[in-house]
Amino acid sequence: MSTPVGQRIQALVEENPVMLFMKGTPDFPQCGFSARVVQVLNHLGVPFKAENVLADPEMREGIKIFSDWPTIPQLYVKGEFIGGCDIIMEMAQSGELQTLLKEKGIASAAA
User: Fold this and answer.
1) Per-residue pLDDT tens for 21-40?
2) CA dihedral for 89, 92, 94, 99, sign (positive or negative)
3) The whole model's pTM is what?
4) For the domain 4-103, what is the CATH code?
């Protein structure tokens, strides 16, 4: 995606080992799905960067095109799209998310 917003998204994904595109901010999520993903990451003690897509309509639409995924939140780990809320919740419950983070070299308090 070589649009300006696509380039911004690419830069965020590349520069931040754990990148969450969400509605609202980690301190003030604007939707329940975003809140749940933040809760999981905080519970695991994973440092992450978040981008509030509600603050930028171009970003809100651009991230859906970038990932070819229709919903927000979206979690990226080391540049790889992991999924949205349901996938993150399932992965966290099964331990798969913790394993993925460890394999990617992401330190967490739960490790």
Assistant:
1) 999 999 999 999 999 999 99
2) positive
3) 0.94
4) 3.40.30.10
